[in-house]
Each structure stands twice: as structure tokens, then as C-alpha cells.
Design brief:
Elements lengths: L2 H11 L6 H11 L5 E2 L1 H10 L6 H13 L4 E6 L2 E5 L6 E5 L4 E5 L23 E4 L4
Parallel strand pairs: 4-6
Antiparallel strand pairs: 1-3, 2-3, 4-5
């Protein structure tokens, strides 16, 4: 099954109609391998591809895709989120000087975790290692 066909199936499974705008944005997101995008980056890509779409529609679509399990939202600070096309568990390097977000592989060992409140369990741990230039 082609990856794009899988996206259409996942949209339908999540109860999202594969509209023209959703399909156009999905093609930009998933056609060329793994990537991290902000809403503004995706809107710019859409504009470059002559796809007419508002920033609000891009935001709505990204959040719908995230809820459907097609994307993973990575919040790097209170004003900026990236959307990752790789939804499996992995960590990220965030380059503060360039705003570049990139994946890293490998295990991160966390020790001395605080006590988890009764009735709760850890569902996931997101690791973002922030980097800055040495100078």
C-alpha cells in the first residue's frame, strides 16, 4: 500500500473526510520522508506549491492530523510547536540559534523520577535537548 493511500485510510478511520485541502497538505507533509514543520512552514510550502489555504486551516488540519495519530506535536516553547511526521517514540535536539528541530535515536535513561501521584501512570516522556552555539 502506498503511504499516501494509507494517509487517506487513516483520515477516514479517524472520521476525517479526505477533503481537497487536507489531501494537499497531507501530500506536502508525508510525500518526501520524515520532517518537522510549524504551521507557518507548512503554509509557506503550500503557497510555493500554489495551494490556496489559510493559516487557520493549516493549524486546524495539523491539529486534526495529530488527533488522528498521523502527526506528533512537539512543543518547544509556549509560542512554538512543531509537528513531526514520525510518530514513534524518539527524542529531539532543538537548536535554539536556528530553530532547527531534529530527531535523535537511542535510549535516554531517566533516574530519580518523582513519585507519580496515586491513580496515575506515565503515558509518555518527551525528551527535547536544547542546544546553543558554543560561542
Amino acid at each position: 500500500m502506498r503511504p499516501f493511500t494509507q494517509v487517506i485510510d487513516q483520515l477516514r478511520t479517524a472520521g476525517l473526510r479526505p477533503t481537497r485541502q487536507r489531501l494537499a497538505l497531507a501530500k506536502l507533509l508525508f510525500e518526501n520522508g520524515p520532517r518537522h514543520v510549524t504551521a507557518e512552514m507548512l503554509r509557506s510550502d503550500a503557497h510555493d506549491a500554489s495551494i490556496r489555504v489559510s493559516l487557520a486551516t493549516v493549524y486546524n488540519t495539523l491539529h486534526q492530523f495529530t488527533k488522528a495519530g498521523l502527526l506528533r506535536e512537539i512543543v518547544v516553547d509556549p509560542t512554538r510547536s512543531y509537528f513531526d511526521t514520525t510518530t514513534t517514540e524518539h527524542g529531539h535536539f532543538f537548536h535554539e540559534d536556528t530553530n532547527l528541530l531534529e530527531d535523535f535515536e537511542g535510549d535516554v535513561k531517566l533516574t530519580n523520577l518523582p513519585a507519580i501521584p496515586e491513580g496515575s501512570k506515565i503515558s509518555t516522556v518527551d525528551v527535547i535537548i536544547r542546544l546553543s552555539s558554543k560561542n
